Amino acid sequence: MKWIQLSVHTTTMGAEVISGLLMEIGACGTEIVDRYDVLSADKRDGMWDMIDEHVLQNMPEEVIVKAYFEADGNEAEKTSLAREKVQTLRGESLGFDLGSLKTETETVQDEDWKDNWKKWYKPMRIGSCIIVKPTWETYEAKPDDLVLEMDPGMAFGTGTHETTSMCIRMLEKYVRSHCKCIDVGCGSGILALAAAKLGAESCIAIDLDELAVKVADENIRNNHLEDRVRAVQGDLLEQCEENADVIVANIIADVICYLCKPVSTKLEKDGVFIMSGIIREKEADVLNALERAGYVVCDRLTEGEWVCLAARVKE
Fold it and tell me: Which CATH number belongs to the domain containing residue 15 in this structure?
Protein backbone atom coordinates (compact mmCIF):
# COMPACT_ATOMS: atom_id res chain seq x y z
CA MET A 1 0.00 0.00 0.00
CA LYS A 2 1.21 3.51 -0.82
CA TRP A 3 1.35 6.41 1.63
CA ILE A 4 2.10 10.11 1.28
CA GLN A 5 4.87 11.31 3.55
CA LEU A 6 4.65 15.01 4.44
CA SER A 7 7.86 16.34 6.02
CA VAL A 8 7.87 19.59 8.00
CA HIS A 9 11.16 21.29 8.93
CA THR A 10 10.94 22.77 12.42
CA THR A 11 12.77 22.99 15.77
CA THR A 12 13.04 20.77 18.82
CA MET A 13 10.43 22.83 20.64
CA GLY A 14 8.16 23.00 17.61
CA ALA A 15 8.19 19.27 16.89
CA GLU A 16 5.50 18.22 19.37
CA VAL A 17 3.22 21.06 18.25
CA ILE A 18 3.60 20.12 14.59
CA SER A 19 3.16 16.41 15.29
CA GLY A 20 -0.02 16.99 17.29
CA LEU A 21 -1.46 19.26 14.62
CA LEU A 22 -0.83 16.76 11.84
CA MET A 23 -2.38 13.92 13.82
CA GLU A 24 -5.46 16.06 14.51
CA ILE A 25 -6.08 16.62 10.80
CA GLY A 26 -5.86 12.98 9.83
CA ALA A 27 -2.27 11.74 9.70
CA CYS A 28 -2.08 8.00 10.37
CA GLY A 29 1.23 8.38 12.18
CA THR A 30 4.07 10.80 12.81
CA GLU A 31 7.81 10.46 13.21
CA ILE A 32 10.13 13.06 14.76
CA VAL A 33 13.79 13.00 13.70
CA ASP A 34 15.79 15.24 16.05
CA ARG A 35 19.54 14.91 16.50
CA TYR A 36 19.28 17.03 19.68
CA ASP A 37 17.67 14.04 21.40
CA VAL A 38 21.05 12.36 20.97
CA LEU A 39 23.33 15.35 21.52
CA SER A 40 21.58 16.36 24.75
CA ALA A 41 22.14 12.95 26.32
CA ASP A 42 23.52 13.15 29.85
CA LYS A 43 27.00 11.64 29.52
CA ARG A 44 27.40 11.43 33.29
CA ASP A 45 24.60 8.87 33.41
CA GLY A 46 26.34 6.66 30.87
CA MET A 47 23.70 7.37 28.26
CA TRP A 48 26.27 8.50 25.71
CA ASP A 49 27.97 5.09 25.66
CA MET A 50 24.85 3.50 24.18
CA ILE A 51 24.59 5.82 21.17
CA ASP A 52 25.44 4.51 17.71
CA GLU A 53 27.76 7.11 16.17
CA HIS A 54 26.70 6.03 12.66
CA VAL A 55 23.11 6.89 13.54
CA LEU A 56 24.15 10.35 14.76
CA GLN A 57 26.21 11.08 11.64
CA ASN A 58 23.27 10.29 9.38
CA MET A 59 20.66 12.35 11.23
CA PRO A 60 19.60 15.65 9.60
CA GLU A 61 20.74 18.98 11.07
CA GLU A 62 17.16 20.28 11.22
CA VAL A 63 14.33 18.74 13.18
CA ILE A 64 11.94 17.03 10.79
CA VAL A 65 8.43 15.91 11.58
CA LYS A 66 7.20 13.30 9.11
CA ALA A 67 3.47 12.64 8.84
CA TYR A 68 1.92 9.82 6.85
CA PHE A 69 -1.39 10.04 4.96
CA GLU A 70 -3.10 7.17 3.21
CA ALA A 71 -2.98 7.42 -0.59
CA ASP A 72 -6.72 6.96 -1.01
CA GLY A 73 -7.42 9.44 -3.81
CA ASN A 74 -7.87 12.37 -1.42
CA GLU A 75 -4.21 12.71 -0.49
CA ALA A 76 -3.73 15.97 -2.42
CA GLU A 77 -6.54 17.60 -0.45
CA LYS A 78 -5.20 16.24 2.85
CA THR A 79 -1.63 17.37 2.31
CA SER A 80 -2.81 20.78 1.06
CA LEU A 81 -4.83 21.22 4.25
CA ALA A 82 -1.85 20.07 6.32
CA ARG A 83 0.44 22.65 4.69
CA GLU A 84 -2.15 25.36 5.23
CA LYS A 85 -2.56 24.49 8.92
CA VAL A 86 1.20 24.38 9.44
CA GLN A 87 1.65 27.81 7.90
CA THR A 88 -1.07 29.31 10.13
CA LEU A 89 1.23 28.59 13.08
CA ARG A 90 3.44 31.45 11.89
CA GLY A 91 0.90 33.87 13.31
CA GLU A 92 0.60 32.11 16.67
CA SER A 93 2.34 33.50 19.75
CA LEU A 94 3.76 30.29 21.21
CA GLY A 95 6.79 31.76 22.94
CA PHE A 96 9.36 29.80 20.93
CA ASP A 97 10.74 29.51 17.40
CA LEU A 98 9.04 27.04 15.04
CA GLY A 99 11.81 27.15 12.45
CA SER A 100 11.34 27.44 8.70
CA LEU A 101 8.19 25.26 8.51
CA LYS A 102 9.33 24.20 5.05
CA THR A 103 7.29 21.23 3.77
CA GLU A 104 8.05 18.41 1.35
CA THR A 105 6.06 15.40 0.15
CA GLU A 106 6.96 12.02 -1.29
CA THR A 107 5.27 8.68 -1.88
CA VAL A 108 6.44 5.74 0.23
CA GLN A 109 5.51 2.09 0.51
CA ASP A 110 3.78 0.71 3.59
CA GLU A 111 6.79 -1.18 4.87
CA ASP A 112 9.06 1.85 4.45
CA TRP A 113 7.51 4.15 7.06
CA LYS A 114 6.03 1.88 9.71
CA ASP A 115 9.44 0.78 10.95
CA ASN A 116 11.86 3.44 9.66
CA TRP A 117 11.62 5.51 12.85
CA LYS A 118 12.90 2.56 14.87
CA LYS A 119 16.45 2.95 13.61
CA TRP A 120 16.84 6.15 15.67
CA TYR A 121 15.65 4.53 18.90
CA LYS A 122 18.35 2.70 20.89
CA PRO A 123 18.70 1.62 24.55
CA MET A 124 19.51 4.57 26.79
CA ARG A 125 20.14 5.28 30.44
CA ILE A 126 18.03 7.99 32.08
CA GLY A 127 18.95 9.10 35.57
CA SER A 128 21.03 6.70 37.64
CA CYS A 129 19.32 3.38 37.05
CA ILE A 130 16.46 3.49 34.51
CA ILE A 131 17.28 1.94 31.15
CA VAL A 132 14.75 2.56 28.38
CA LYS A 133 15.12 -0.29 25.90
CA PRO A 134 13.14 -0.73 22.68
CA THR A 135 11.45 -4.12 22.59
CA TRP A 136 13.31 -5.02 19.38
CA GLU A 137 16.80 -4.18 20.75
CA THR A 138 19.10 -6.22 23.00
CA TYR A 139 20.79 -4.89 26.13
CA GLU A 140 22.96 -6.56 28.77
CA ALA A 141 21.70 -5.16 32.07
CA LYS A 142 24.06 -4.26 34.92
CA PRO A 143 23.18 -5.37 38.47
CA ASP A 144 21.40 -2.15 39.49
CA ASP A 145 19.73 -1.41 36.15
CA LEU A 146 15.94 -1.16 35.99
CA VAL A 147 15.07 -1.95 32.37
CA LEU A 148 11.91 -0.66 30.72
CA GLU A 149 10.85 -2.55 27.58
CA MET A 150 9.23 0.16 25.46
CA ASP A 151 7.43 0.21 22.15
CA PRO A 152 6.27 3.83 21.98
CA GLY A 153 4.12 3.49 18.86
CA MET A 154 4.14 6.00 16.04
CA ALA A 155 2.85 9.03 17.94
CA PHE A 156 4.20 8.72 21.48
CA GLY A 157 7.38 9.44 23.37
CA THR A 158 10.46 7.26 23.63
CA GLY A 159 11.98 8.94 26.69
CA THR A 160 14.63 10.85 24.76
CA HIS A 161 12.90 14.21 25.14
CA GLU A 162 14.24 16.45 27.93
CA THR A 163 10.82 16.78 29.53
CA THR A 164 10.47 13.02 29.89
CA SER A 165 14.01 12.39 31.10
CA MET A 166 13.69 15.11 33.75
CA CYS A 167 10.45 13.55 35.00
CA ILE A 168 12.18 10.19 35.34
CA ARG A 169 15.02 11.79 37.29
CA MET A 170 12.44 13.37 39.60
CA LEU A 171 10.66 10.03 40.01
CA GLU A 172 13.97 8.44 41.03
CA LYS A 173 14.17 11.00 43.83
CA TYR A 174 10.59 10.96 45.11
CA VAL A 175 9.13 7.50 44.46
CA ARG A 176 9.29 5.31 47.56
CA SER A 177 8.45 1.64 48.08
CA HIS A 178 4.73 1.01 48.40
CA CYS A 179 3.75 4.52 47.30
CA LYS A 180 0.92 5.18 44.86
CA CYS A 181 1.39 7.15 41.63
CA ILE A 182 -0.74 8.75 38.93
CA ASP A 183 0.63 9.70 35.48
CA VAL A 184 -1.62 12.31 33.86
CA GLY A 185 -1.38 12.42 30.05
CA CYS A 186 0.58 9.18 29.97
CA GLY A 187 1.27 8.76 26.23
CA SER A 188 3.32 5.55 25.96
CA GLY A 189 3.04 5.02 29.72
CA ILE A 190 6.76 5.44 30.25
CA LEU A 191 6.49 7.49 33.47
CA ALA A 192 4.01 5.17 35.17
CA LEU A 193 6.19 2.20 34.23
CA ALA A 194 9.32 3.95 35.53
CA ALA A 195 7.55 4.66 38.83
CA ALA A 196 6.59 0.98 39.15
CA LYS A 197 10.15 -0.14 38.39
CA LEU A 198 11.35 2.26 41.10
CA GLY A 199 9.14 0.55 43.66
CA ALA A 200 5.70 2.15 43.49
CA GLU A 201 2.99 -0.20 44.70
CA SER A 202 0.39 0.97 42.20
CA CYS A 203 0.33 3.35 39.24
CA ILE A 204 -2.50 4.71 37.14
CA ALA A 205 -1.64 5.90 33.62
CA ILE A 206 -4.34 8.26 32.30
CA ASP A 207 -4.76 9.66 28.80
CA LEU A 208 -7.67 11.09 26.84
CA ASP A 209 -6.38 9.53 23.61
CA GLU A 210 -7.70 6.01 23.07
CA LEU A 211 -4.60 5.07 21.05
CA ALA A 212 -2.30 6.28 23.84
CA VAL A 213 -4.12 4.05 26.31
CA LYS A 214 -3.76 1.10 23.94
CA VAL A 215 -0.01 1.71 23.52
CA ALA A 216 0.46 2.18 27.27
CA ASP A 217 -1.45 -1.05 27.96
CA GLU A 218 0.80 -2.96 25.56
CA ASN A 219 3.89 -1.57 27.28
CA ILE A 220 2.50 -2.57 30.68
CA ARG A 221 2.18 -6.14 29.42
CA ASN A 222 5.65 -6.05 27.81
CA ASN A 223 7.08 -5.22 31.24
CA HIS A 224 4.89 -7.73 33.11
CA LEU A 225 3.58 -4.99 35.39
CA GLU A 226 -0.15 -5.68 35.02
CA ASP A 227 -0.40 -6.20 38.79
CA ARG A 228 0.86 -2.69 39.56
CA VAL A 229 0.14 -0.44 36.55
CA ARG A 230 -3.13 0.11 34.72
CA ALA A 231 -3.90 2.38 31.79
CA VAL A 232 -7.25 4.16 31.72
CA GLN A 233 -8.90 6.57 29.31
CA GLY A 234 -9.95 9.84 30.89
CA ASP A 235 -9.81 13.63 30.70
CA LEU A 236 -7.00 14.61 33.06
CA LEU A 237 -8.13 13.68 36.60
CA GLU A 238 -11.87 13.94 36.02
CA GLN A 239 -12.51 10.19 36.04
CA CYS A 240 -9.88 9.38 38.69
CA GLU A 241 -11.21 8.63 42.17
CA GLU A 242 -7.93 7.48 43.73
CA ASN A 243 -5.43 9.57 45.66
CA ALA A 244 -1.67 9.23 45.23
CA ASP A 245 1.67 9.99 46.88
CA VAL A 246 3.21 11.09 43.56
CA ILE A 247 1.34 12.65 40.65
CA VAL A 248 3.32 13.36 37.49
CA ALA A 249 2.19 15.36 34.46
CA ASN A 250 4.39 15.88 31.41
CA ILE A 251 2.00 17.97 29.33
CA ILE A 252 2.18 21.71 28.59
CA ALA A 253 2.35 24.70 30.91
CA ASP A 254 -1.24 25.89 30.38
CA VAL A 255 -2.67 22.48 31.25
CA ILE A 256 -0.39 22.21 34.28
CA CYS A 257 -1.70 25.56 35.52
CA TYR A 258 -5.22 24.17 35.24
CA LEU A 259 -4.21 20.94 37.01
CA CYS A 260 -2.68 22.57 40.08
CA LYS A 261 -5.93 22.76 42.04
CA PRO A 262 -7.34 19.32 41.07
CA VAL A 263 -4.01 17.66 41.82
CA SER A 264 -3.88 19.25 45.28
CA THR A 265 -7.09 17.41 46.21
CA LYS A 266 -5.67 14.06 45.06
CA LEU A 267 -2.29 14.19 46.82
CA GLU A 268 -1.78 12.26 50.03
CA LYS A 269 -0.13 14.07 52.95
CA ASP A 270 3.45 15.06 51.97
CA GLY A 271 2.67 13.96 48.41
CA VAL A 272 4.61 15.41 45.47
CA PHE A 273 3.35 16.90 42.21
CA ILE A 274 5.98 16.50 39.47
CA MET A 275 5.34 18.56 36.36
CA SER A 276 7.18 19.10 33.08
CA GLY A 277 6.54 20.22 29.52
CA ILE A 278 7.12 23.77 30.78
CA ILE A 279 9.10 26.10 28.51
CA ARG A 280 11.13 28.72 30.40
CA GLU A 281 8.92 31.57 29.21
CA LYS A 282 5.91 29.89 30.87
CA GLU A 283 7.57 28.97 34.17
CA ALA A 284 6.36 32.13 35.92
CA ASP A 285 2.76 31.27 34.96
CA VAL A 286 3.13 27.81 36.49
CA LEU A 287 4.75 29.19 39.65
CA ASN A 288 1.88 31.66 40.07
CA ALA A 289 -0.68 28.87 39.62
CA LEU A 290 1.13 26.73 42.19
CA GLU A 291 1.18 29.61 44.67
CA ARG A 292 -2.54 30.26 44.22
CA ALA A 293 -3.29 26.55 44.76
CA GLY A 294 -1.27 26.43 47.98
CA TYR A 295 1.92 24.65 46.93
CA VAL A 296 5.56 25.19 47.79
CA VAL A 297 8.15 24.23 45.15
CA CYS A 298 10.63 21.69 46.52
CA ASP A 299 12.70 20.86 43.44
CA ARG A 300 13.59 22.19 39.98
CA LEU A 301 15.45 20.80 36.97
CA THR A 302 16.23 22.44 33.64
CA GLU A 303 17.40 21.12 30.27
CA GLY A 304 17.64 23.33 27.22
CA GLU A 305 14.52 25.47 27.11
CA TRP A 306 12.54 23.16 29.38
CA VAL A 307 11.79 23.23 33.11
CA CYS A 308 10.63 20.45 35.43
CA LEU A 309 9.25 21.27 38.88
CA ALA A 310 8.28 19.28 41.97
CA ALA A 311 5.95 20.81 44.54
CA ARG A 312 4.13 19.92 47.76
CA VAL A 313 0.95 21.36 49.21
CA LYS A 314 1.69 23.68 52.13
CA GLU A 315 0.58 22.35 55.52
Answer: 3.30.70
